[in-house]
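Re: the 344-residue chain
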Amino acid sequence: MDSERNLTLLKDYQAYLRVEKGLRPLTCEAYDSDLKTFAEFLENRHGVLLTATQQDVAAFLEHLHAHGIDSRSSARKLSCLRGFYKWLLLDRRIHHDPTINIESPKAWKVLPKSLAEPEVVEMLERAGMAASHPQAQATALRDSAILELLYAGGLRVSEVTGLATSDLALDLGRVLVRGKGDKERIVPLGRTALETLETYLREGRPHLARISSVRKSDGARQDATCLFLSLRGMPLTRQWIWHLVKMANQDASPHRLRHSCATHMVEHGADLRSVQLLLGHADISTTQVYTHLALGRLKAVHRQFHPRGKQREDEFPATTPPPRGGLHLVPGSKASPKATEETA
Protein backbone atom coordinates (compact mmCIF):
# COMPACT_ATOMS: atom_id res chain seq x y z
CA MET A 1 0.00 0.00 0.00
CA ASP A 2 2.80 2.44 0.91
CA SER A 3 4.56 1.62 -2.33
CA GLU A 4 1.44 2.33 -4.40
CA ARG A 5 0.88 5.68 -2.69
CA ASN A 6 4.48 6.72 -3.38
CA LEU A 7 4.32 5.64 -7.04
CA THR A 8 1.10 7.59 -7.60
CA LEU A 9 2.66 10.69 -6.08
CA LEU A 10 5.80 10.33 -8.18
CA LYS A 11 3.75 10.00 -11.38
CA ASP A 12 2.03 13.31 -10.58
CA TYR A 13 5.41 14.94 -9.97
CA GLN A 14 6.81 13.58 -13.23
CA ALA A 15 3.86 15.10 -15.10
CA TYR A 16 4.55 18.43 -13.38
CA LEU A 17 8.23 18.34 -14.36
CA ARG A 18 7.50 17.50 -17.98
CA VAL A 19 4.48 19.75 -18.61
CA GLU A 20 4.88 22.77 -16.35
CA LYS A 21 8.65 22.87 -15.84
CA GLY A 22 9.45 21.68 -19.37
CA LEU A 23 12.37 19.51 -18.27
CA ARG A 24 13.95 17.08 -20.70
CA PRO A 25 13.17 13.34 -20.40
CA LEU A 26 16.66 12.46 -19.15
CA THR A 27 16.43 15.05 -16.37
CA CYS A 28 13.00 13.75 -15.36
CA GLU A 29 14.35 10.20 -15.26
CA ALA A 30 17.23 11.27 -13.00
CA TYR A 31 14.82 13.00 -10.57
CA ASP A 32 12.53 9.98 -10.60
CA SER A 33 15.42 7.65 -9.79
CA ASP A 34 16.57 9.76 -6.83
CA LEU A 35 13.04 10.06 -5.43
CA LYS A 36 12.40 6.34 -5.77
CA THR A 37 15.60 5.67 -3.82
CA PHE A 38 14.30 7.88 -1.01
CA ALA A 39 10.84 6.31 -1.20
CA GLU A 40 12.32 2.81 -0.80
CA PHE A 41 14.32 4.03 2.19
CA LEU A 42 11.13 5.39 3.78
CA GLU A 43 9.20 2.18 3.10
CA ASN A 44 11.85 0.23 5.00
CA ARG A 45 11.16 2.60 7.90
CA HIS A 46 7.38 2.12 7.41
CA GLY A 47 6.94 5.64 6.09
CA VAL A 48 5.74 7.36 2.91
CA LEU A 49 6.83 10.44 1.00
CA LEU A 50 3.92 12.60 2.20
CA THR A 51 4.71 12.04 5.89
CA ALA A 52 8.52 12.21 5.76
CA THR A 53 10.19 14.18 8.55
CA GLN A 54 13.47 16.03 8.95
CA GLN A 55 14.77 13.02 10.85
CA ASP A 56 13.95 10.82 7.84
CA VAL A 57 15.85 13.09 5.48
CA ALA A 58 18.86 13.30 7.81
CA ALA A 59 18.85 9.52 8.24
CA PHE A 60 18.68 9.11 4.46
CA LEU A 61 21.81 11.23 3.98
CA GLU A 62 23.60 9.23 6.68
CA HIS A 63 22.49 6.04 4.92
CA LEU A 64 23.99 7.26 1.64
CA HIS A 65 27.27 8.16 3.35
CA ALA A 66 27.44 4.74 5.05
CA HIS A 67 27.04 3.04 1.69
CA GLY A 68 29.91 4.93 0.07
CA ILE A 69 27.89 7.53 -1.86
CA ASP A 70 30.10 10.58 -2.34
CA SER A 71 29.12 13.99 -1.03
CA ARG A 72 28.48 15.39 -4.49
CA SER A 73 25.89 12.71 -5.31
CA SER A 74 24.29 13.10 -1.87
CA ALA A 75 24.03 16.86 -2.39
CA ARG A 76 22.32 16.27 -5.76
CA LYS A 77 19.79 13.91 -4.18
CA LEU A 78 19.06 16.42 -1.42
CA SER A 79 18.51 19.13 -4.04
CA CYS A 80 16.06 16.80 -5.78
CA LEU A 81 14.16 16.27 -2.51
CA ARG A 82 13.98 20.01 -1.91
CA GLY A 83 12.39 20.58 -5.29
CA PHE A 84 9.93 17.76 -4.71
CA TYR A 85 8.77 18.99 -1.30
CA LYS A 86 8.57 22.57 -2.52
CA TRP A 87 6.12 21.32 -5.15
CA LEU A 88 4.10 19.47 -2.49
CA LEU A 89 3.91 22.65 -0.42
CA LEU A 90 2.75 24.74 -3.37
CA ASP A 91 0.19 22.07 -4.22
CA ARG A 92 -0.98 22.11 -0.57
CA ARG A 93 -0.45 18.40 -0.14
CA ILE A 94 1.79 18.94 2.90
CA HIS A 95 2.12 21.70 5.49
CA HIS A 96 5.78 21.29 6.44
CA ASP A 97 8.91 20.87 4.34
CA PRO A 98 11.12 18.12 5.84
CA THR A 99 14.21 19.41 3.99
CA ILE A 100 14.26 22.74 5.84
CA ASN A 101 17.37 23.26 7.98
CA ILE A 102 19.03 20.17 6.52
CA GLU A 103 22.63 21.02 5.71
CA SER A 104 23.78 20.05 2.26
CA PRO A 105 26.72 17.63 2.23
CA LYS A 106 29.94 19.39 1.40
CA ALA A 107 30.35 18.83 -2.31
CA TRP A 108 33.99 18.97 -3.25
CA LYS A 109 34.71 20.87 -6.41
CA VAL A 110 35.80 18.18 -8.85
CA LEU A 111 38.14 19.71 -11.37
CA PRO A 112 37.02 18.77 -14.87
CA LYS A 113 39.35 16.40 -16.67
CA SER A 114 40.42 17.50 -20.11
CA LEU A 115 42.72 16.34 -22.86
CA ALA A 116 45.93 18.15 -23.74
CA GLU A 117 45.75 20.24 -26.90
CA PRO A 118 48.14 17.96 -28.83
CA GLU A 119 45.94 14.97 -27.99
CA VAL A 120 42.83 16.69 -29.34
CA VAL A 121 44.63 17.90 -32.44
CA GLU A 122 45.96 14.42 -33.17
CA MET A 123 42.50 12.86 -32.74
CA LEU A 124 40.77 15.40 -34.98
CA GLU A 125 43.48 15.28 -37.63
CA ARG A 126 43.27 11.49 -37.78
CA ALA A 127 39.48 11.65 -38.25
CA GLY A 128 39.95 14.43 -40.82
CA MET A 129 42.40 12.35 -42.85
CA ALA A 130 39.91 9.47 -43.02
CA ALA A 131 37.19 11.90 -44.15
CA SER A 132 39.41 13.54 -46.79
CA HIS A 133 40.28 10.27 -48.52
CA PRO A 134 39.06 10.22 -52.16
CA GLN A 135 36.98 7.12 -51.40
CA ALA A 136 35.78 8.29 -47.99
CA GLN A 137 32.41 6.90 -46.98
CA ALA A 138 29.51 8.95 -45.68
CA THR A 139 30.11 7.62 -42.16
CA ALA A 140 33.71 8.90 -42.13
CA LEU A 141 32.51 12.38 -43.08
CA ARG A 142 29.83 12.21 -40.40
CA ASP A 143 32.20 11.00 -37.67
CA SER A 144 34.73 13.75 -38.40
CA ALA A 145 31.98 16.39 -38.28
CA ILE A 146 30.71 15.08 -34.91
CA LEU A 147 34.16 15.17 -33.31
CA GLU A 148 34.85 18.67 -34.61
CA LEU A 149 31.48 19.89 -33.35
CA LEU A 150 31.91 18.39 -29.86
CA TYR A 151 35.23 20.17 -29.40
CA ALA A 152 34.72 23.41 -31.31
CA GLY A 153 31.34 24.19 -29.74
CA GLY A 154 31.66 22.45 -26.37
CA LEU A 155 28.30 20.75 -26.96
CA ARG A 156 26.79 18.10 -24.71
CA VAL A 157 26.27 14.74 -26.36
CA SER A 158 22.47 15.07 -26.02
CA GLU A 159 22.68 18.44 -27.76
CA VAL A 160 24.49 16.86 -30.70
CA THR A 161 21.95 14.06 -31.09
CA GLY A 162 19.12 16.61 -30.99
CA LEU A 163 20.45 18.83 -33.76
CA ALA A 164 18.42 19.27 -36.95
CA THR A 165 19.75 20.45 -40.29
CA SER A 166 17.72 23.65 -39.88
CA ASP A 167 19.70 24.49 -36.73
CA LEU A 168 22.85 25.09 -38.76
CA ALA A 169 23.70 28.54 -40.10
CA LEU A 170 27.04 27.80 -41.67
CA ASP A 171 27.04 31.01 -43.69
CA LEU A 172 26.92 32.88 -40.37
CA GLY A 173 29.37 30.51 -38.69
CA ARG A 174 27.07 29.31 -35.92
CA VAL A 175 24.63 26.65 -34.78
CA LEU A 176 21.43 26.84 -32.72
CA VAL A 177 21.67 24.51 -29.72
CA ARG A 178 18.91 23.36 -27.36
CA GLY A 179 20.34 22.63 -23.95
CA LYS A 180 18.98 21.66 -20.57
CA GLY A 181 15.38 22.69 -20.03
CA ASP A 182 15.07 23.28 -23.78
CA LYS A 183 16.96 26.56 -23.39
CA GLU A 184 18.30 27.74 -26.72
CA ARG A 185 21.68 29.34 -27.30
CA ILE A 186 23.74 30.36 -30.31
CA VAL A 187 27.15 28.67 -30.51
CA PRO A 188 29.81 30.08 -32.88
CA LEU A 189 32.06 27.63 -34.68
CA GLY A 190 35.60 27.87 -36.00
CA ARG A 191 36.61 27.58 -39.64
CA THR A 192 37.70 23.93 -39.45
CA ALA A 193 34.44 22.80 -37.88
CA LEU A 194 32.42 24.76 -40.44
CA GLU A 195 34.30 23.25 -43.37
CA THR A 196 33.90 19.73 -41.97
CA LEU A 197 30.15 20.21 -41.52
CA GLU A 198 29.80 21.64 -45.02
CA THR A 199 31.53 18.60 -46.51
CA TYR A 200 29.33 16.23 -44.52
CA LEU A 201 26.15 18.03 -45.60
CA ARG A 202 27.25 18.09 -49.22
CA GLU A 203 28.76 14.64 -49.66
CA GLY A 204 27.85 12.46 -46.67
CA ARG A 205 24.40 13.18 -45.33
CA PRO A 206 22.53 12.92 -48.68
CA HIS A 207 23.52 9.26 -48.87
CA LEU A 208 22.31 8.57 -45.32
CA ALA A 209 19.15 10.63 -45.86
CA ARG A 210 18.16 8.50 -48.86
CA ILE A 211 18.06 5.51 -46.57
CA SER A 212 15.91 7.37 -44.04
CA SER A 213 13.28 8.11 -46.71
CA VAL A 214 12.64 4.42 -47.33
CA ARG A 215 9.55 3.12 -45.59
CA LYS A 216 10.42 0.54 -42.96
CA SER A 217 8.70 -2.79 -42.48
CA ASP A 218 6.59 -1.41 -39.65
CA GLY A 219 5.26 1.32 -41.90
CA ALA A 220 7.02 4.16 -40.06
CA ARG A 221 9.37 6.72 -41.57
CA GLN A 222 12.49 7.88 -39.81
CA ASP A 223 13.04 11.53 -38.96
CA ALA A 224 14.77 12.95 -42.06
CA THR A 225 15.39 16.35 -40.40
CA CYS A 226 17.96 15.01 -37.91
CA LEU A 227 21.46 16.28 -38.68
CA PHE A 228 23.44 13.13 -37.91
CA LEU A 229 22.07 9.82 -39.20
CA SER A 230 23.16 6.20 -38.92
CA LEU A 231 23.69 3.76 -41.78
CA ARG A 232 20.07 2.71 -41.31
CA GLY A 233 18.89 6.28 -41.59
CA MET A 234 18.13 6.46 -37.86
CA PRO A 235 19.06 9.36 -35.54
CA LEU A 236 22.25 8.55 -33.62
CA THR A 237 22.01 7.71 -29.92
CA ARG A 238 24.08 9.18 -27.10
CA GLN A 239 25.63 5.77 -26.47
CA TRP A 240 26.72 5.49 -30.11
CA ILE A 241 28.46 8.88 -30.04
CA TRP A 242 30.14 7.97 -26.75
CA HIS A 243 31.47 4.83 -28.46
CA LEU A 244 32.65 6.89 -31.46
CA VAL A 245 34.70 9.20 -29.24
CA LYS A 246 36.19 6.26 -27.35
CA MET A 247 37.25 4.66 -30.62
CA ALA A 248 38.95 7.91 -31.62
CA ASN A 249 40.80 8.22 -28.28
CA GLN A 250 40.55 5.78 -25.37
CA ASP A 251 41.09 8.60 -22.85
CA ALA A 252 38.37 10.79 -24.36
CA SER A 253 34.60 11.03 -23.95
CA PRO A 254 32.02 13.50 -25.28
CA HIS A 255 31.95 15.32 -21.95
CA ARG A 256 35.75 15.39 -21.73
CA LEU A 257 35.86 17.06 -25.15
CA ARG A 258 33.41 19.65 -23.77
CA HIS A 259 35.71 20.24 -20.80
CA SER A 260 38.70 20.40 -23.13
CA CYS A 261 36.98 23.12 -25.15
CA ALA A 262 36.45 25.25 -22.03
CA THR A 263 39.87 24.48 -20.58
CA HIS A 264 41.75 25.43 -23.74
CA MET A 265 39.73 28.62 -24.10
CA VAL A 266 40.62 29.72 -20.57
CA GLU A 267 44.26 28.79 -21.11
CA HIS A 268 44.30 31.05 -24.16
CA GLY A 269 42.79 33.96 -22.22
CA ALA A 270 38.99 33.71 -22.57
CA ASP A 271 37.00 35.21 -19.68
CA LEU A 272 34.61 33.04 -17.70
CA ARG A 273 31.51 34.89 -18.89
CA SER A 274 32.30 33.99 -22.50
CA VAL A 275 32.86 30.37 -21.53
CA GLN A 276 29.58 30.36 -19.60
CA LEU A 277 27.65 31.58 -22.64
CA LEU A 278 29.32 29.08 -24.94
CA LEU A 279 28.68 26.07 -22.70
CA GLY A 280 25.16 27.13 -21.73
CA HIS A 281 25.69 27.16 -17.97
CA ALA A 282 22.71 28.71 -16.20
CA ASP A 283 24.88 29.94 -13.32
CA ILE A 284 28.36 31.42 -13.50
CA SER A 285 29.29 29.37 -10.41
CA THR A 286 29.22 26.25 -12.59
CA THR A 287 31.81 27.80 -14.89
CA GLN A 288 33.98 29.00 -12.01
CA VAL A 289 35.42 25.52 -11.69
CA TYR A 290 37.72 26.65 -14.51
CA THR A 291 39.17 29.52 -12.46
CA HIS A 292 42.02 27.28 -11.32
CA LEU A 293 43.17 27.29 -14.94
CA ALA A 294 43.17 31.08 -15.09
CA LEU A 295 45.15 31.14 -11.82
CA GLY A 296 47.70 28.70 -13.19
CA ARG A 297 48.08 30.84 -16.31
CA LEU A 298 48.54 33.96 -14.18
CA LYS A 299 51.29 32.23 -12.19
CA ALA A 300 53.03 31.21 -15.40
CA VAL A 301 52.95 34.79 -16.68
CA HIS A 302 54.29 36.11 -13.38
CA ARG A 303 57.17 33.63 -13.31
CA GLN A 304 58.08 34.38 -16.91
CA PHE A 305 57.96 38.16 -16.87
CA HIS A 306 58.35 39.42 -13.27
CA PRO A 307 62.00 40.15 -12.41
CA ARG A 308 61.68 38.32 -9.09
CA GLY A 309 59.21 35.71 -10.24
CA LYS A 310 61.89 33.55 -11.90
CA GLN A 311 63.80 32.99 -8.66
CA ARG A 312 61.35 30.36 -7.41
CA GLU A 313 60.51 28.77 -10.74
CA ASP A 314 62.26 25.50 -9.83
CA GLU A 315 60.40 25.29 -6.53
CA PHE A 316 56.97 26.00 -8.03
CA PRO A 317 57.01 24.84 -11.66
CA ALA A 318 54.38 26.37 -13.90
CA THR A 319 51.54 23.99 -14.78
CA THR A 320 50.00 26.10 -17.52
CA PRO A 321 51.72 27.49 -20.61
CA PRO A 322 52.02 31.27 -21.00
CA PRO A 323 49.40 33.02 -23.10
CA ARG A 324 49.72 32.79 -26.86
CA GLY A 325 48.14 36.14 -27.47
CA GLY A 326 44.51 37.20 -27.79
CA LEU A 327 41.22 35.68 -26.71
CA HIS A 328 39.84 32.75 -28.68
CA LEU A 329 36.11 32.36 -28.49
CA VAL A 330 36.26 29.01 -30.25
CA PRO A 331 39.28 26.67 -30.37
CA GLY A 332 40.60 26.48 -33.88
CA SER A 333 38.97 29.76 -34.94
CA LYS A 334 41.07 32.59 -36.37
CA ALA A 335 38.88 35.20 -34.74
CA SER A 336 39.99 36.48 -31.34
CA PRO A 337 37.17 38.68 -29.99
CA LYS A 338 37.84 40.80 -26.96
CA ALA A 339 36.37 39.88 -23.62
CA THR A 340 32.99 41.46 -23.08
CA GLU A 341 32.66 41.03 -19.36
CA GLU A 342 35.13 40.39 -16.58
CA THR A 343 34.25 38.07 -13.73
CA ALA A 344 35.70 38.09 -10.28
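The CA atoms of residues 149 and 275 lie 16 Å apart.
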